[in-house]
Design brief:
With 381 residues, this protein is mainly beta. The protein has four helices and 26 strands. A hairpin with a 2-residue loop joins strand 3 and strand 4.
Length: 381
């Protein structure tokens, strides 16, 4: 007798079928690379959910037990050569008596994370939230599989090749229509309109749309990068956080420009919106997130970013070779009523950081030939 699973297409599953889709629309989304989800039913209940967004090189699978408890979740990501590799696998294991909401916290948990460089990292938490954890690492290549054709998800789900997947209606399942999809592909934060931050007199909303601001552009002067390895950080943390970005530029002196936002009707309410270090004057054609060693965008979830931390309300640009000698520069200069400062010899530029403490991304602008045109520290106003 042929083993069969009924298949329901939708935007996702959150205890209900969110925005059901027909097979034709789901197949069109698959071809276009836009997000959609597939529910596999066993005896009328969701046994597994696939969430796919091929444009983002992403596929997630979630398995449920007979009580509707999540017991396994895989994350597959695209490799540079186009197939998929298992980025992360998580499992939960506990007695049948534990309810759906308590289960994720008290069940035994295991997580395995793979990297394309051949590293594997495991985390065991045999008592869930109630006990300790054991971390282990070893060399092991990540499992791989070709990107599946539409409807051929057997390898991702560990199904036998003979299992038939048959499109079905969501009859008997709760349905939610016109709601937001319950999941998002892991798209890191995008740079937004970084270039417009440096247009004198332009206006924009800040503080999540709660305030209006008018932008002023100030030329601060040059900063000296004798090694070409740029650091953006809180100057009060230079002793502990002097890690330069992986992208370097030729040694030299580079001009720094600040975008200042004058908030609302108070002429004294001035915030630094962004700081830009120009490497060339060529137009920027593309933006990318500046990374430090060991950082990989594949580790970021939706709208997440790698940024430099601020704990003293200040930020700075400084060269890696200059950092050790600049630990106390911020103390010696003192901000007074100024929103920014420059060490007289050009060894460091400092500014007050946006709304204060937090984490802030730096963007790298590249020209049409792919060369570095600028770095922009975004204060996220």
């Amino acid at each position: 007798m042929t083993d069969t699973r009924n298949v329901v297409y939708a935007d996702g599953w959150d205890g209900s079928v969110v925005n059901p889709l027909g097979r034709t629309e789901a197949e069109a989304r698959d071809a276009a690379g836009t997000p959609y989800a597939v529910l596999l039913l066993a005896d009328g209940r969701p046994e597994c959910v696939l969430a796919m967004s091929w444009a983002d090189g992403y596929c997630g699978t979630t398995r449920f037990d007979h009580r509707g408890r999540r017991v396994a979740a895989d994350e597959w990501r695209r490799t540079p050569d186009g197939d998929l590799f298992l980025r992360c696998r998580r499992t939960w294991n506990g007695p049948d008596s534990i309810g759906e909401h308590e289960f994720p916290h008290v069940a035994a948990r295991h997580a395995t994370t793979y990297r394309l460089n051949g590293r594997r990292h495991d985390i065991d938490e045999p008592q869930g939230d109630r006990g300790g954890r054991l971390d282990t690492s070893r060399i092991e290549a990540a499992p791989r599989t070709p990107r599946p054709a539409f409807g051929v998800w057997h390898d991702l789900l560990g199904l036998a090749a003979g299992v038939r997947l048959v499109a079905a209606a969501a009859d008997g399942l709760p349905v939610t229509s016109d709601g937001e999809p319950p999941w998002r592909p892991p798209r890191p934060m995008a740079p937004g309109d970084v270039e417009n931050l440096f247009v004198e007199g332009s206006e924009r909303t800040v503080a999540g749309g709660a305030e209006r601001a008018r932008l002023e552009v100030r030329q601060v002067g040059d900063v000296h990068l004798p090694s070409g390895r740029l650091i953006a950080t809180d100057p009060a943390w230079l002793e502990h956080d002097a890690v330069p970005y992986t992208v370097t530029v030729p040694p030299g002196r580079y001009p720094v420009t600040l975008s200042l936002a004058r908030i609302g009707d108070d002429p004294r309410h001035l915030r630094v919106a962004a700081a830009r270090l120009d490497v060339t004057d060529r137009p920027v054609r593309s933006w990318e997130m500046a990374l430090r060693p060991g950082q990989d965008p594949i580790d970021l979830g939706h709208d997440e970013f790698f940024g430099f931390g601020v704990d003293a309300g200040m930020a700075c640009f400084v060269d890696a070779d200059e950092a050790a000698g600049r630990i106390d520069t911020w103390r010696e200069l003192g901000f007074g009523d100024e929103a920014y400062l420059r060490a007289g010899d050009g060894g460091m530029v400092l500014w007050l950081s946006g709304w204060g403490d937090g984490a802030y991304p730096t963007w790298i602008g590249r020209d049409v030939e792919g060369a570095v045109a600028c770095f922009v520290a975004d204060m996220l106003l």
